[in-house]
Amino acid sequence: MTDPTYQFSRAITRRPADSIVNGLRAEDIGTPDLSQMMQDHAHYVATLKETGAEVIELPALDDFPDAVFVEDTALCLPQGAVLMRPGAPSRMGEVAQMAPTLRECYDDLREIKGPGHIEGGDILVTAREILVGRSDRTDAEGVAELRAIVSDWGHSLREVFTPPGVLHFKTDCSLLDGETILSTKRLDASGCFEGYRVLHVAEGEEAAANSIRFNQFVFSPAGFPRTTEMLRRHGYDVVEINNTECAKLDGGMSCLSLRFQ
Q: Residue 163 — very low, low, confident or very high, per pLDDT cuts 50/70/90?
């Protein structure tokens, strides 16, 4: 029996555009190197395919510098998909660009109509519930509208809170399997993961918390050796993927794909 929270048959990615150098960032730590980002993105897509999954590779969108971060545009569940309503005004148009692809994949496609906002980076789906972190990009109205939609599909949604200064809830956590979450200590200290098995990233390696479990692999950003060693010690098959350029735009492993069965 498969677990739809981390066992997938399909993924959607989008090629980085030249305009990504103008992407949003909470702090300016340098301009992304497009050539390096292309190499890293190709490695990411190749690793998705290595699991046996079908990868739908969408073309670059020059009008939307952040469109490579497709996860923020939708939530994909076994019963259907929900188009998000991003909290960043410059990203609102990305949703309409994603909609035709999701209509081809799902019979039931719904949308957050507003006035609230919600982004996929704030949503962690576990085997027992959907956790949604309030953040600068996701507000109470957006959470309430999503709750109404997913409850219709039999899902329980729990609202939690993203730490101050952290862009998205999943910046600080990721799902490793049906009952295990990888988290920073600061996020776990809030008590939002009570009842789960929680593994902490190493001190100083907080950026490693944004990993993804995709079939047999854990995709982890390269450059965090203590966290990688810990994950391997716990039996996870870790693939390290360079994320230096996406990190300049507050992006990570989960941001780069939509994953579903």
A: confident
Tens digits of residue pLDDT in 174-221: 999 999 999 999 999 999 999 999 999 999 999 999 999 999 999 999
Nearest-angstrom CA–CA distance, 254 and 256: 6
Q: What's the mean pLDDT when you consider all of the chain?
A: 96
1 occurs within a structural domain: no
What is the count of structural domains for the chain? 1
Q: Choosing from 41, 117, 168, 200, which is the catalytic residue?
A: 168
Tell me the whole-structure pTM to 2 decimals: 0.96
**How crowded is residue 181: how many other Cβ atoms within 10 Å of its Cβ?**
22
Q: 1 falls in which pLDDT band (50, 70, 90)?
A: low
Question: For residue 128, what pLDDT is reported?
Answer: 95
246 is known as an active-site residue: no
Show the domain range for 219: 10-260
From the candidates 76, 192, 246, 255, which is the catalytic residue?
255
* 43 is an active site residue: no
Do 97 and 67 contact (CB within 8 A), yes or no?
yes
Residue 133 lies in a domain: yes
CATH of the domain at 72: 3.75.10.10
In a domain, 77, yes or no: yes
Q: What is the DSSP string of 203-217?
A: TT-GGGG--EEETTE
How many other β-carbons are positioned within 10 Å of the β-carbon of residue 225? 12
